[in-house]
Design goal:
By secondary structure, the protein is mostly helical. The chain has one domain. The protein is built from four helices and no strands. The protein is elongated, with a radius of gyration of 22 Å.
């Protein structure tokens, strides 16, 4: 057993290593870290609200493009690509 692993086992890690492991930051920032983990129901609700926002953006984008007499296949392509991109960003986020 190496010295580093014996220090970890004894709980004598450096404070900055422990804070990084818990999601803390090395340097202070304008946005403080979370004091508690978000509840599962809260996380699901936030994702549903954000998903509704993605749908609303797609509807608005489609309406704008149709009002400008853009061909249907281009409207479908643009709206679907924007929706997929926003959804990927949304669902990959660990903050929601």
């Amino acid at each position: 057993m190496s010295m580093a692993s014996s220090e970890r086992a004894a709980g004598t890690e450096e404070p900055d290593v422990r804070s990084r492991r818990r999601g803390g930051r090395d340097q202070p920032t304008m946005i403080p870290g979370r004091e508690r983990r978000r509840l599962k129901a809260e996380s699901v609700l936030m994702r549903l609200v954000a998903t509704a926002g993605v749908v609303a953006i797609g509807v608005a984008l489609g309406a704008i493009l149709v009002s400008q007499d853009v061909q249907g296949w281009i409207v479908g392509l643009v709206v679907s690509l924007v929706s997929v991109l926003l959804s990927a960003i949304l669902w990959s986020s660990r903050r929601l």
